[in-house]
Amino acid sequence: MNARLHKPVSWQVWLLAAACLALTAALPFLVGNYWLRIWTTVLMYVAIAQGLNIIVGFAGYHSFGNAAFFGVGAYATGVAMAMGVPFLATLPIAAGVSALIAMAVGYPLLRLRGHYFAIATVALNVAFAELIINVGGVTGGAQGLPLPMSDQSPDVLYRRIYFLMLASAVGATVLVAWLGRSRFGFALRALKDSDSGAQAMGINTTRTRVVAWMMSAAVTGLVGGIWAYWLTFIEVTSAFDIGISVKGYIMMLIGGLGTVVGPVLGAVFFELFATLIWTRFGEIHNLVLGVLVCAVILLIPQGLLALAQSRIRKGKGAP
């Protein structure tokens, strides 16, 4: 098994990845503002799905409340900018604060398993939303928080946001690829398979789980900070929207959890199809999209990546 996981990546895969990255980098200069917004959202969800992939796909802890870290990152950026910190300097703050909160709440919450942990993460999201509302003052409370306006033109600003989302998506994917081949990643897999077995191997299970959730939170909080500057005005209902976690989770499942490329495929597939369905079916687009998602998950339980790999093997005549 280890030999297969450490098998060198072929040059064709590297070439395809480079071509996709070059095309993605060129998109802002090839499409209009509408599709630029769509693709910026796609990249945002690539990073969110990869963040979930760390704690769900590798560690086996099903979190439905990672939107809490998205909101924390957004408000960390908003509050820091209101205090005069430049935007780019707020992004490490957003990631760091999210990671520290994940560490603080991780030690008690990660002792839970299964649906107990999932419910606890949803409650965590609700708790942080209420905290932001009740704190008020620097957070704006229920009235929302405006961010300082950029002095750049809209076209330049939106391209800048796009490239920041692209960097976040690439960085999150590289992090997941590293986990797939690192000792820490193998420790997470062992923990996912058997908690007692991992302990018998000498793995500090509590610390491993907490570090994984910190990584997941940092990625999600970073993207939340970029999103806050993109909108220039944030409020609790949108920043801590549980739908952010649910969409990221669905994308990860559709693409293939525990894989490197799966969440990328899932985010692209889901967001583009959601857009196309919305333009064609109007008021019932959520119903149509839900049926489509259920069909994909039922018919392709291992995800789109597994389906593509199966097709490639059959094309080569492999069993």
In short:
With 319 residues, this protein is mainly α. The chain has helices at residues 2-5, 11-26, 33-58, 67-82, 87-109, 114-135, 154-181, 183-193, 195-200, 205-231, 236-239, 242-255, 262-281, 285-299, 304-315, and strands at residues 145-146, 233-234. The chain has a domain at 33-241.
Please give a structural write-up:
- It is a single chain.
- It is built from 15 helices and two strands.
- Mean pLDDT is 87; it is low at 1-6.
- The chain has 319 residues and is mainly α.
- The chain has a two-stranded antiparallel ribbon.
- The protein has a domain at 33-241.
How does the helix and strand content classify structurally? mainly alpha
**Total number of beta strands:** 2
**Arithmetic mean of pLDDT:** 87
> How far is it from the N-terminal to the C-terminal residue, by CA?
18 Å
Strand content: under 5%
Helix content: over 70%
Strand order of the largest sheet: 1-2
What does the overall shape look like? globular
Largest sheet descriptor:
2 strands, antiparallel
Poorly predicted spans = 1-6
Give the radius of gyration: 20 Å
Instruction: Give me the number of helical elements.
Output: 15
Order of helices and strands: HHHHHHEHHHHEHHHHH
Keywords:
single chain, mainly alpha, 15 helices, globular
Write the layout of secondary structure elements.
Elements: H1 2-5, H2 11-26, H3 33-58, H4 67-82, H5 87-109, H6 114-135, E1 145-146, H7 154-181, H8 183-193, H9 195-200, H10 205-231, E2 233-234, H11 236-239, H12 242-255, H13 262-281, H14 285-299, H15 304-315
Antiparallel strand pairs: 1-2
Helix pairs in contact: 3-7, 3-10, 3-12, 3-13, 4-5, 4-6, 4-10, 5-10, 7-8, 7-10, 8-10, 12-13, 13-14
